[in-house]
């Protein structure tokens, strides 16, 4: 099989960039919340232009100097955009300064205009590949680091591909610098780059798809206001894991309707969110905390979480200490809590919910801001013994 010549390789390179740009452009158009994908598509377009200019520079020797400089500037700008796009794709809330994206290309333009270093193929190729390595490696680090915040399965693969591309660029930079193509020749290096861009474009499609699947799952599992688990998730994940000694807490914010009527629904929402965060902060990691609806919440406490009465009293006290500056310093929100425990008599989730609901009713009947365990004789300040 004959080796591919450089014009053929450059044609394949342009084609791959254009195909990648079209794919990413469609993804940008069709996917919501896809910040950074447009930048990545733009980088592919600019890299395709750079590849085209490289061919023109060889075809028209009279214009070699300006075309080769513009080619290098476009190539560096393309990789700067590519690296920045992965930084934004990794975290859509992250901001990237336009000046930092444009800076490498502008520096190359100024240095080239004053030194004409770009007329030397070795200098031009080594500079481009080294800068590409830096940008690809930086993008790989960001993608991998953000996996701790957003652990998508595809992240490590994308980071690995970016790292491999960066390593390939570094190898080519050294080979051009020392005129020693021991690992692969120029055409083979370009072909590897072409393949890597195809894989990168495909991986971003998978990346966005995985992120949207996570958001859809969160929408199905989470309460839209508080971010807590919803009733559906709670029922599906608790009903099959009930064991002797496990407990259920029913919580209700006292006089919530009065609060809504006096300060408005926006204030009511603020209270719901603040109370949710307060309760989350005092619950053990093994607990499952969900919003039942309205001002009602439910907590599953496995046996290892400790005494449910003690946990419930911690919640009650924490809520009572919570302050709401926007509503006034004198506003105190309290909660009533009912407790039920898994026993031979009550082993199903529906039975436990009914018992916890009855205990909650008793806590409210006793004056609110109380904890009631329907099956316990434990009594202390804040607790109510059931009849």
TrEMBL record:
<feature type="transmembrane region" description="Helical">
    <location>
        <begin position="125"/>
        <end position="145"/>
    </location>
</feature>
<feature type="domain" description="GGDEF">
    <location>
        <begin position="244"/>
        <end position="376"/>
    </location>
</feature>
<feature type="transmembrane region" description="Helical">
    <location>
        <begin position="157"/>
        <end position="174"/>
    </location>
</feature>
<feature type="transmembrane region" description="Helical">
    <location>
        <begin position="186"/>
        <end position="208"/>
    </location>
</feature>
<keyword id="KW-1133">Transmembrane helix</keyword>
<dbReference type="GO" id="GO:0052621">
    <property type="term" value="F:diguanylate cyclase activity"/>
</dbReference>
<keyword id="KW-0812">Transmembrane</keyword>
<dbReference type="InterPro" id="IPR050469">
    <property type="entry name" value="Diguanylate_Cyclase"/>
</dbReference>
<feature type="transmembrane region" description="Helical">
    <location>
        <begin position="96"/>
        <end position="119"/>
    </location>
</feature>
<keyword id="KW-0472">Membrane</keyword>
<feature type="transmembrane region" description="Helical">
    <location>
        <begin position="6"/>
        <end position="27"/>
    </location>
</feature>
<protein>
    <recommendedName>
        <fullName>diguanylate cyclase</fullName>
        <ecNumber>2.7.7.65</ecNumber>
    </recommendedName>
</protein>
<dbReference type="InterPro" id="IPR029787">
    <property type="entry name" value="Nucleotide_cyclase"/>
</dbReference>
<dbReference type="Pfam" id="PF00990">
    <property type="entry name" value="GGDEF"/>
</dbReference>
<dbReference type="InterPro" id="IPR043128">
    <property type="entry name" value="Rev_trsase/Diguanyl_cyclase"/>
</dbReference>
<feature type="transmembrane region" description="Helical">
    <location>
        <begin position="63"/>
        <end position="89"/>
    </location>
</feature>
<feature type="transmembrane region" description="Helical">
    <location>
        <begin position="39"/>
        <end position="57"/>
    </location>
</feature>
<dbReference type="InterPro" id="IPR000160">
    <property type="entry name" value="GGDEF_dom"/>
</dbReference>
């Amino acid at each position: 099989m004959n080796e591919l010549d450089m014009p053929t390789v450059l044609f394949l390179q342009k084609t791959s960039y254009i195909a990648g740009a079209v794919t990413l452009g469609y993804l940008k158009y069709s996917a919501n919340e896809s910040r950074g994908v447009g930048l990545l598509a733009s980088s592919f377009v600019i890299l395709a232009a750079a590849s085209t200019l490289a061919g023109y520079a060889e075809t028209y020797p009279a214009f070699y100097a300006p075309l080769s400089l513009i080619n290098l500037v476009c190539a560096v700008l393309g990789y700067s955009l590519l690296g920045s796009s992965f930084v934004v794709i990794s975290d859509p809330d992250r901001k990237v300064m336009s000046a930092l994206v444009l800076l490498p290309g502008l520096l190359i333009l100024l240095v080239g205009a004053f030194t004409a270093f770009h007329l030397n193929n070795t200098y031009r190729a080594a500079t481009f590949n080294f800068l590409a390595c830096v940008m690809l490696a930086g993008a790989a680090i960001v993608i991998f680091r953000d996996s701790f915040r957003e652990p998508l399965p595809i992240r490590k693969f994308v980071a690995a591909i970016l790292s491999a591309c960066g390593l390939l660029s570094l190898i080519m930079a050294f080979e051009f610098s020392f005129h020693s193509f021991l690992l692969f020749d120029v055409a083979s290096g370009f072909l590897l780059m072409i393949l890597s861009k195809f894989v990168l474009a495909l991986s971003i499609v998978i990346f966005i798809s995985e992120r949207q699947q996570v958001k859809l799952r969160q929408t199905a599992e989470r309460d839209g206001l508080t971010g807590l688990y919803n009733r559906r998730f709670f029922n599906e994940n608790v009903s099959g894991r009930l064991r002797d000694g496990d407990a259920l807490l029913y919580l209700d914010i006292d006089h919530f309707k009065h609060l809504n009527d006096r300060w408005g629904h926006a204030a009511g929402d603020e209270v719901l969110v603040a109370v949710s965060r307060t309760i989350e902060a005092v619950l053990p990691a093994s607990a499952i905390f969900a919003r039942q609806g309205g001002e009602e919440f439910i907590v599953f406490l496995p046996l290892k979480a400790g005494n449910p009465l003690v946990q419930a009293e911690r919640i009650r006290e924490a809520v009572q200490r919570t302050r709401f500056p926007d509503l006034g310093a004198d506003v105190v929100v309290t909660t009533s809590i009912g407790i039920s425990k898994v026993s031979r008599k009550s082993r199903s989730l529906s039975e436990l919910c009914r018992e916890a609901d009855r205990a909650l009713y008793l806590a409210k009947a006793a004056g609110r801001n109380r904890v009631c365990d329907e099956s316990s004789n434990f009594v202390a300040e804040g607790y109510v013994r059931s009849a």
